[in-house]
Amino acid sequence: MKTLVTGGAGFIGSHLVDGLLTKGHEVVAIDNFVSGRPENLKARASDPRLQLIQADIRDVSAMEGCFEGVDWVFHLAALADIVPSIQKPMDYYSTNVTGTLNVLEAARAAGVKRFVYVASSSSYGIPDKVPTPETAEIRCEYPYALTKYLGELAVLHWHKVYHLPAVALKFFNIYGPRSRTSGTYGAVFGVFLAQKTNGKPYTVVGDGTQTRDFTYVTDAVSALILAAESEISGEVFNVGSGGSYSINHLVRLLGGDVAYVPKRPGEPDATYADISKIRRMLNWHPSVSFEEGVRRMLECSEDWKAAPVWEPDSVKAATREWFEYLGKAS
Question: Could you tell me the pTM of the whole model?
Fold first, then answer.
């Protein structure tokens, strides 16, 4: 197949490019390099089946011609992070909503056979039920979650109205090599590994008993490819690990000292995907255990030396607006 990956130089996108090339597909990777990095694809740079294009999904003219002859589209390009979405909601809307509409229309015009959208489990907010099924109430707590959910709705609407063969996968806490280290107080693995590599204590939020459905990136990639290979359309699937693990357990596996920081408003005590639907309909199963995933992350811990090193005071400064806005709302 000729495939197109938006956000192809990003964390998950670059792993997806690897997976598609390994399966023999041709790949067009689009990225504006705001958070994606060309070096994420350096191991594939000489592969003639890979075409890397610098373009912004908000710029329709920049994407012209990129979709020609494309069979599958994987739409991963998005702005992430909570605090920046609170600070600059219009930027998040223009990328995550309008940008998604641009990609949908380009895919529709090209007559693509499959459209796979990466949605976010953050749209569930603080759920009543854990494990959380796809039927759970949507409770977006901040603009990032809202804009990702609006993108999801657009994808399902384009399927309904224009018969675009599309599915959405709601990802839960994806981690692995190449994960982002930039952004305002980023993902926990990047934060902790940078702290470990630089001999600093882990900044644990609250008491550390909160749990997360940490899902290894190669399992996420296998779900994406299975979704493209299937003939199922108009569905939303959770993608998780099949478990939920406490931050304290992660700290024990990593080893090291801890510095506690205040619990943040708008964050659930647990994220845990009910993955029975994707197991049943796509026959997808996660294969990397949490302990194995952590071991793999520790093997590449040197990669985190240049990452930002957070300490309690810098965390407090970086999340001030988080508390100011979401704290008043809760």
Answer: 0.96
